[in-house]
Specification:
- The chain is of the alpha+beta class and about 110 residues long.
- It has 3 helices and 5 strands.
- It has a 5-stranded antiparallel β-sheet, with helices on one face.
- Strand 2 (about 25-30) and strand 3 (about 35-45) form a beta hairpin.
- It is globular and about 35 Å long.
- Bound molecules: adenosine monophosphate.
- Adenosine monophosphate binds near residues 16, 31 and 96.
Length: about 110
């Protein structure tokens, strides 16, 4: 099990505002939201970075993205739009080394990202 902050959230050792859970995926609100909606989708199975993913993780990665899309539809902002982001390692801006997909919505996003 992952010994990061997110591993502790999975094990309910620290609190989080959980918005979705199934056997393989957990989603909770980011403590430092960068948009009106900012939710993190993580695999329960620890995977430090996207760079660590292998072919056998393809289904899990797909499930993470599908969970984001389902959440956007359920919460009613899918049509208006949203952004998903995976930061990987130092230059990607990753700070928590348990793979996570950021789902951002509720405002217009800019491109390129800063
Ligand atoms: P990243 O920089 O892509 O690794 O993103 C890590 C994210 O985790 C940041 O957006 C943080 O605000 C968020 N974060 C850190 N600690 C917590 C926590 N205890 N609960 C929820 N989100 C957190």
């Amino acid at each position: 099990m992952s010994d990061t902050l997110f591993g502790k959230i999975i094990r309910r050792e620290i609190p989080a505002d959980i918005v979705y859970e199934d056997d393989e995926v957990l989603a909770f609100r980011d403590v430092n939201p960068q948009a009106p909606v900012h939710v993190l989708f993580i695999p329960k199975r620890p995977l430090a970075t996207l760079d660590d993913a292998v072919a056998g993780d393809a289904e899990l990665l797909g499930k993470l993205l599908l969970a984001c899309a389902a959440y956007a539809k359920r919460e009613g902002f899918a049509q208006q739009g949203y952004r998903t982001v995976i930061n990987c390692n130092e230059h990607g801006g990753q700070t928590v080394f348990h793979l996570h997909v950021h789902l951002l919505a509720g405002r217009r996003m800019h491109w390129p990202p800063g």
